Amino acid sequence: MLCLLFFLVTAIHAELCQPDGENAFKVRLSIRTALGDNAYAWDTNEEYLFKAMVAFSMRKVPNRETTEISHVLVCNVTQRVSFWFVVTDPLKNHTLPAVEVQTAIRMNRNRINGAFFLNDQTLEFLKIPSTLAPPTDPSVPIWIIIFGVIFCIVIVAVMLLILSGIRQRRRMSKGPTEVDDSEDKCENTITIENGIPCDPLDTKGGHINDAFMTEDERLTPL
Amino acid sequence: MACAPGPDPRGAGGGHERPSWDNRLQYLLSCIGFAVGLGNIWRFPYLCQTYGGGAFLIPYLVALVLEGIPLFHIELAIGQHLRTGSVGVWKAVSPYLGGVGLGCLTVSFLVSMYYNTVLTWVLWYFLNSFQNPLPWGSCPLDLNRTGFEAECQASSPVSYFWYRRTLNITADISDSGSIQWRLLACLAASWAVVYLCVIRGIESMGKAIYFTALFPYLVLTIFLIRGLSLPGAVKGLTYLFTPDVRILQSPRVWLDAATQIFFSLSLAFGGHIAFASYNPHRNNCEKDAVIISLVNSLTSLYASIAMFSVLGFKAANDHGRCLDRNILRLINAFELPDQSVNRDDYAAVLSHLNATQPERVARLCLETCRLEDFLDKSASGTGLAFIIFTEAILHMPGAPGWAVLFFGMLFTLGLSSMFGNMESIITPLLDMGVTHRFIPKEVLTGLACLVCFLSAICFTLQSGNYWLEIFDNYAAPLNLMVFAFFEVVGVAYVYGVQRFSDDVESMTGRRPGLYWQVTWKVVSPLLLLTIFVAYVVTLARTPLSYKAWDTQYVRFPTRQEKSYPGWVQAACVLLCFLPVLWVPAVALAQLLAAHRRKKDTGRDRCPKL
């Protein structure tokens, strides 16, 4: 009698957890992609941890605080590592609605991922969309900061150039009395006799006289 | 003898001495910087790839020798001899050709407007490169944070960042949208940078050019060294440079090579004339012309090697990821262990599965992954820089650093070309005596930059990119070819080759040889006429249409081909022909003036009899 009951229970269990069954979800893990050489093998102990995490998530849902590990059924485990799971009610005769399971998993996704050292891409719950992390926007966009720096430098440089140009022009318009070097003062002057300038050649110090330029100097070197 | 104060050589009064370059290196770098621009980076590699790889170099070099160098020599020699900007030069060659100079000024103004807008986009990307991860690497989330934005999901994060976050483009050119304040701010910044560098003419520009002309070469070298060490780079280089000599039979290749050389050297803008006018009279302009043209072409080649190595890496990367996606689909469908199939085994596993369970494999919709398909994906212009290359950078380790280097290089390349454009506007204005002696040069350059900035605001509208393509395709090419033709014919026939050769001999000490005489008199004018006619014929045959980024389009993200509305077509025609109208207008005005003068002298003579 007891054996019959046991067989009945396992048969019902088998019916409850089926690929594409009612309220069943497929899970796919990519452990080797996530961990590389540190990948662990997927065995029944890992399955037990998974059931525990799902039961833990369901316990956070109101009215489902009494969910036990044995209420979570796992079936069709493949080499890929992928399997199907369902959560049954305490009486173990029907599965809990998919919406409740979905909400529970979504709220605790990070804890489940963390237990297996995986993330949303390597531990996939098909048909349960994950909430994507919000982008970390700084309060001031970075481009504005750099733009401000460059613009300020340019404006300051333009101001400096304009001011130095104004100063230069004011110095020139005030006449050579403002010129600092007294030696240049006389070199820049032109001797005037009877009101006519005598020296037609440019007498600026160090200037090359065209008339005496040699053949070699006609072509400017690179 | 009274020791009286004489006139100051830098003269606030009249007798203002023409500024000159500090040394010859500044002059050479300025010309090289003007010639080497964005086109060397994103036009030449595309042409190389489309026209049979290494084989394209043959028509390119032929065009350089027959057309590029002779025209360039004319511009440098005539500017150096007459020591004035483009307007004064052509008026001096012949009063009837004065319109050529004014036309060059107009075209330079139009080009400055939209060229700096491209620099604005480059600056925007540069500013956004200082963060990790790069903003064009991932899509933004949609409203309920369960997925990505639809537009981004359908196209790609890189395209989304370009079309939506940068341009915020509308679906149609008639829908102008609003001014994008981000682009407006970057436009103001880039015009401020241009103003800072050209504020005192060549005095300030000569200092800035050391950095802006040399920095791109440094970055290209860094990219070359890094690119060659990336996986897939060498395969990309060999595929893209393998010459296909049969392509030389098509006349289209020769036409494009001649056109590319013409625009690559920035001829007929008046910028080189302006630069050369600040030279001392005795300077070997012949050597300069050859050096600068060769440096320009070698830079194009160098840049394409660097670009192709990175693009080869990108193609190999895309191919690998295509294989990975297929492998994942296979593993998920057939429940094979994770990571059990790597890229080398893929073909064998697929054929085995295809033999045993073909229907299941067919239902999977696997992509075809061929490396050649990815290598063939080519683009030129903004598409290459802002979409393809930015995506390639995403996969290089240390991506933000590479992005900063790349966009910094593009900005300095464009900036040195902008110097030439601005000088071709400012120098003729200065020489025409537009500025009264109490208006300092800084104010004139500031006004020029301000006018260009205010006119360029129309490109910061949401439809700005469509308008920029119009300006790029119609404002410059035809007009420049016409002006270049008049330049060559004006110097060779109106001014006279003999007289011109005498001038060149007085400057360089050597009379131009047979090569120069033949190219100036016969070859270059004929070539220019041919490419002008061919260009007009090609333009007339292609319907006036543009590619719009329309999210509602059925085949989005492919861009939808739309034709221009009537008023836009009228604008295209205006842009094509308005600058050229200066030439007949000025010639007509001169004719009328000469006619009136003859009538007046005839009337004066009579009473004396």
Automatic annotation (TrEMBL), chain A:
Chain ranges of the Collectrin-like domain: 21-222
Q: Which PANTHER family match?
A: COLLECTRIN (PTHR46884)
Coiled coil ranges: none
Membrane topology per the entry is: Single-pass type I membrane protein
Q: What is this protein called?
A: Collectrin-like
Q: Does the keyword Transmembrane helix apply?
A: yes
Which keywords describe this protein according to UniProt?
Cell membrane, Glycoprotein, Membrane, Phosphoprotein, Signal, Transmembrane, Transmembrane helix
Tell me which GO cellular component terms the UniProt record holds: extracellular exosome; plasma membrane
Compartment(s) where it occurs, according to its Swiss-Prot or TrEMBL record: Cell membrane
Transmembrane residue ranges: 140-163
GO BP annotations of the record are: positive regulation of amino acid transport
Q: Which organism is it from?
A: Lynx pardinus
Asked if the record carries the keyword DNA repair, the reply is no
Q: Which PROSITE patterns match?
A: COLLECTRIN_LIKE (PS52010)
Q: What are the boundaries of the signal sequence? A: none
Domain of life the protein comes from: Eukaryota
From TrEMBL, chain B:
What's in the keyword line of the UniProt record?
Glycoprotein, Membrane, Symport, Transmembrane, Transmembrane helix, Transport
> Which locations, inside or outside the cell, does it occupy?
Membrane
Query: In what way does this protein cross or attach to the membrane?
Result: Multi-pass membrane protein
- Would the keyword Flavoprotein turn up in this protein's UniProt record? no
Domain of life assignment: Eukaryota
- Asked if the keyword Transport belongs to this entry, the reply reads yes
Which residues, by range, are in coiled-coil regions? none
Q: Where are the transmembrane segments?
A: 27-45, 57-78, 99-127, 179-198, 210-234, 254-278, 290-311, 402-422, 443-462, 474-497, 518-537, 567-593
**A Pfam family hit:** SNF
The UniProt similarity line reads: Belongs to the sodium:neurotransmitter symporter (SNF) (TC 2.A.22) family.
- The protein, known as: Transporter
Q: What is the lineage of its organism?
A: Eukaryota, Metazoa, Chordata, Craniata, Vertebrata
